[in-house]
């Protein structure tokens, strides 16, 4: 049914344009999905009386339709946009395309999830050879007008016409060199007029047509370019890294221009209501006098500090905004406080000052480091601004990974090359690389790399993700590199002005020294230091805000969190991170130990049971010692131990020299050894003689392991007074009978040990559900099994028929093409594998009401998979030690989400 747009008289089947400013707000902060984050917040700021230049938003729904219809706009949209332009004209008193007093607009993207720097923007749109003269006359500043036209041609040619922006940069640099200038602001009106002529000549040369003079053609070209940038390579990479669905689309925001480049009473800036790196409650940001917004975020000029305190702390010389524009700064500070209270979160704000008048161009919840996120969430809860439950929900679980790894040892010797701005905290060492493609290739080969650039651009997103840290010669604390690095959790040092980068020679020069590509460098994003060589690290301190928030999380979560661990060090690390037991101890890792591999190989090479038992007798005390060490760390807690799982051939040698060594140690000839290795060879060993199939054919292996478990558990119980609770897990079960046979072996070993020691302990025997058949037959298997642990790594392999070792070659394409929403080995395939887990849980509980259920694959540390486990009612998840805090927080968030 057709509707009539308010105040416009336009009839349309579907509305796509929403106005804001001048006393009108067609939307608000609740309309993020429709208007994108930027559009929703512009409408909201306008509605609460903040100074927002008037404009309108073309909705995300139009973006979807634009792609569905082959990059075309419906006629109804042209009518709506015309009404939107009329709204801006009515508020400003200027006319779009008017030669005497032209209205200029900005055209910006705005997805519902913040994607800083990933999509396109066009400023100063509406300038042409006639309107530039009108702008010069009405502003009384010809230099400003021609500077704006120069910027517009350069930006439009890059974003819309897709011409070589390097040619325009080169022309600008030549113009400065020819006149002996250092800064862009040194160029006069006449210089800029000549530069515009050069720019237009470049356009005609590269594009084959003159620069577009019709302002309406300019507008639709820019709108199409912004929608088009949603599918740019950099945007796709960013969405993939941040789990943003391609179906969301972007909105387009068209807004009256305000100018920060109208002389020394004008400025532009980016600010945060709290420190996004550390979380301190202090205004944080930068500004530039006589500049436009892109100058700040692009890192083209090194900006000045907002506050005097920040300027003094950095020992910077240029005046802060608090000093240079005290009245405007006071007004801005009031806006900061209003916005933070209104949105109840730390805000990232863009503003412009035009000849002393403050204008707000954007607000959004600011990207922050994990340390800052914790501090801000805890302090806001303690201030009463948000609840504890909201504080728990505010911290991204994956971001905790930034806090859980070592930092530079403060006592270590540092060979400091230079110092830049501490743009994103943390530290990293790696090989110096000077372009993103090289960073990605070397990282894929297993190298740690530091990406070093003059300045990063959105096209560097893949290299930034691949790198362990980022170093730039230019840019401030709010530059593209800084914002994206903080969002990714990468250490970053920006604005290291003393370094020079020779991209052709692949070398960085600083203070008379050279760092060639491949040389190791270290950066400290907390201090801004850049060092030659690697610097030792220390373990993190996990107290303070971290401890407070994790305590709150533990109060609300239902799921228990265990760790995957088989060494005492891993177990201790897991306990320090809050693990409530071990959910997976892989005993084969113990068999691979260099000192006992010979006995393992003797067992494999034995021709009969007696020979195997003789070798296993040598392994028993070593296996028992392994379990004693684990149980001592986990005294009183459950420890799930998976009996031997991999095929036996994995323990045998592969190289000629190894064969000779093993034959000598085992007392057999090489030919016998090779024959036995050939007998054990399997075409598809992951689906072959492994798991419980080994126990069925060689029950003495599982018997030895079970005996070692129970002897160790009793020893620790007698020492500590707190018995561990062994949960003996039989791997790769597909039938009830397999588990029944193996449970008999384990129970007999337990009774024998209990009789020997004169003491019993509590234990369980269960299985790992990692085959589709096991999930389907869970009701029968639960007649024998006392717990199920879903081995989601193998269950994903066997359900999808995809090898996780080989899948990396093609799964990225599958995700890109929408076949899978995410890599199913990273985040659980809820539709397929998840359905099997739900079915197994339901059938297992029907047979055995109190059966214990958990997962122990890598998915146990993935927040989305943990949310599924909460919904399915599992009892616990088990994750690698460093992901235990991530799992604790994700489990709390899942519990809160389940409450509604």
What is Rg? 32 Å
CATH fold-level name of the largest domain: TIM Barrel
Widest β-sheet, arrangement of strands: 17-27-26-19-20-21-22-18
Number of strands: 36
CATH homologous superfamily label of the largest domain: Phosphoenolpyruvate-binding domains
Question: N- to C-terminal separation?
Answer: 34 Å
Tell me the domain tally.
4
Largest sheet: 8 strands, mixed
In terms of quaternary structure, what is this? single chain
The number of helical elements comes to 35
Which CATH architecture of the largest domain is right?
Alpha-Beta Barrel
- The helicity comes to 40-55%
Q: What structural class do the secondary elements suggest? A: alpha/beta
The average pLDDT score comes to 89
List unreliable stretches of 5+ residues.
1-12
The CATH top-level class label of the largest domain? Alpha Beta
Gross morphology is elongated
How much of the residues is beta strand, in percent?
15-25%
Binding site for Mg(2+): 770, 794
Domain PEP-utilising enzyme mobile: 448-528
Protein name: Pyruvate, phosphate dikinase
EC number: 2.7.9.1
């Amino acid at each position: 049914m057709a509707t009539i747009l308010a105040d416009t008289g336009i009839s349309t089947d579907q509305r796509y344009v929403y106005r804001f400013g001048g006393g009108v707000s067609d939307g608000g902060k609740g309309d993020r999905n429709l208007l994108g984050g930027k559009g929703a917040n512009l409408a909201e700021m306008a509605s609460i009386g903040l100074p927002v230049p008037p404009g309108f938003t073309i909705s995300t729904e139009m973006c979807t339709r634009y792609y569905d219809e082959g990059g075309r706009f419906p006629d109804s949209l042209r009518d709506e946009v015309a009404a939107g332009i009329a709204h801006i004209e009515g508020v400003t008193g200027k006319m779009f395309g008017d030669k005497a007093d032209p209205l200029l607009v900005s055209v910006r993207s705005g997805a519902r999830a913040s994607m800083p720097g990933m999509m396109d923007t066009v400023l100063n749109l509406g300038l042409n050879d006639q309107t530039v003269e009108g702008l010069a006359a009405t502003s009384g500043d010809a230099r400003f007008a021609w500077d704006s036209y120069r910027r517009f041609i350069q930006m439009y040619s890059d974003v819309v016409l897709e011409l070589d922006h390097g040619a325009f940069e080169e022309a600008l640099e030549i113009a400065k060199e020819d006149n002996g200038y250092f800064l862009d602001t040194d160029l006069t009106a006449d210089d800029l007029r000549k530069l515009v002529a050069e720019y237009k000549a470049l356009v005609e040369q590269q594009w084959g047509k003159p620069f577009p003079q019709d302002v309406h053609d300019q507008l639709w070209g820019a709108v199409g370019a912004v929608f088009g940038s949603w599918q740019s390579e950099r945007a796709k990479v960013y969405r993939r890294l941040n789990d943003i669905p391609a179906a969301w689309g972007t909105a387009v925001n068209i807004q009256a221009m305000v100018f920060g480049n109208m002389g020394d009473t004008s400025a532009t800036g980016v600010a945060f209501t709290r420190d996004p790196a550390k979380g301190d409650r202090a205004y944080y940001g930068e500004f530039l006098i006589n500049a436009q917004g892109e100058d700040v975020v692009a890192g083209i000029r090194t900006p000045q500090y907002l506050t005097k305190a920040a300027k003094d702390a950095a020992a910077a010389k240029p005046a802060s905004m608090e000093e240079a524009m005290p009245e405007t700064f006071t007004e801005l500070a009031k806006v900061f406080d209003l916005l933070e209270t209104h949105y109840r979160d730390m805000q990232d704000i863009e503003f412009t000052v035009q000849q002393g008048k403050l204008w707000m161009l954007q607000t959004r919840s600011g990207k922050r480091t994990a340390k800052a996120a914790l501090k801000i969430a805890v302090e806001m809860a303690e201030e009463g601004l948000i609840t504890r439950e909201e504080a728990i929900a505010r911290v991204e679980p994956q971001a905790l990974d930034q806090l859980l790894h070592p930092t530079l040892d403060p006592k270590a010797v540092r060979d400091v090359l230079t110092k830049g701005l501490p743009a994103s905290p943390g530290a990293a060492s790696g090989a110096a690389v000077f372009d993103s493609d090289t960073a990605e290739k070397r990282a894929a080969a297993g190298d740690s790399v530091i990406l070093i650039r003059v300045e990063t651009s959105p096209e560097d997103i893949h290299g930034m993700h691949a790198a362990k840290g980022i170093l730039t010669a230019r840019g401030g604390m709010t530059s593209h590199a800084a914002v994206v690095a903080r969002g990714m959790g990468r250490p970053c040092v920006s604005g290291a002005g003393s370094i020079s980068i020779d991209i052709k020679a692949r070398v960085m020069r600083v203070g008379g020294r050279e760092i060639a590509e491949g040389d190791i460098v270290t950066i400290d994003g907390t201090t801004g230091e850049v060092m030659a060589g690697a610097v030792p690290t220390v373990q993190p301190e996990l107290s303070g805000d971290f401890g407070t928030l994790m305590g709150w999380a533990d109060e609300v979560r239902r799921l228990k969190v265990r760790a995957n661990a088989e060494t005492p060090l891993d177990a201790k690390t897991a306990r320090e991170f809050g693990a409530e037991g071990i959910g997976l101890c892989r005993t084969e890792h113990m068999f691979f130990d260099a000192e006992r591999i010979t006995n393992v190989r003797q067992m494999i090479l034995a021709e009969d049971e007696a020979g195997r038992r003789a070798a296993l007798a040598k392994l028993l005390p070593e296996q028992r010692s392994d379990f004693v060490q684990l149980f001592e760390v986990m005294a009183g807690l459950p420890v799930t131990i998976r009996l031997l799982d991999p095929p036996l051939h994995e323990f045998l040698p592969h190289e000629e020299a190894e064969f000779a060594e093993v034959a000598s140690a085992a007392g057999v000839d090489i030919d016998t050894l090779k024959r036995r290795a050939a007998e054990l060879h399997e075409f598809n060993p992951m689906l072959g003689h492994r798991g419980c199939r080994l126990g069925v054919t060689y029950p003495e292996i599982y018997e030895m392991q079970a005996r070692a478990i129970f002897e160790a558990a009793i020893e620790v119980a007698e020492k500590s007074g707190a018995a561990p609770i062994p949960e003996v897990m039989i791997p790769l079960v597909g039938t009830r009978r397999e588990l029944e046979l193996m449970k008999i072996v384990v129970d007999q070993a337990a009774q024998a040990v209990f009789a020997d020691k004169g003491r019993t302990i509590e234990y369980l025997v269960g299985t790992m559900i990692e085959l589709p058949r096991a999930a389907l037959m869970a009701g029968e298997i639960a007649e024998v099994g006392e717990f199920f642990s879903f081995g989601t790594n193998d269950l994903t392999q066997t359900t999808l028929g995809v090898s996780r070792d080989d899948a990396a070659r093609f799964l990225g394409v599958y995700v890109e093409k929408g076949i899978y929403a995410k890599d199913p080995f990273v985040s659980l395939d809820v539709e397929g594998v998840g359905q099997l887990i739900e079915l197994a849980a339901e059938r297992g509980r029907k047979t055995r009401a109190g059966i214990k259920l958990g997962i122990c694959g890598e998915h146990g540390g993935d927040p989305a998979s943990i949310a599924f486990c909460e919904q399915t009612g599992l009892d616990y998840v088990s994750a690698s030690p460093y992901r235990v805090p991530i799992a604790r927080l994700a489990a709390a968030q899942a519990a809160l989400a389940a409450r509604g």
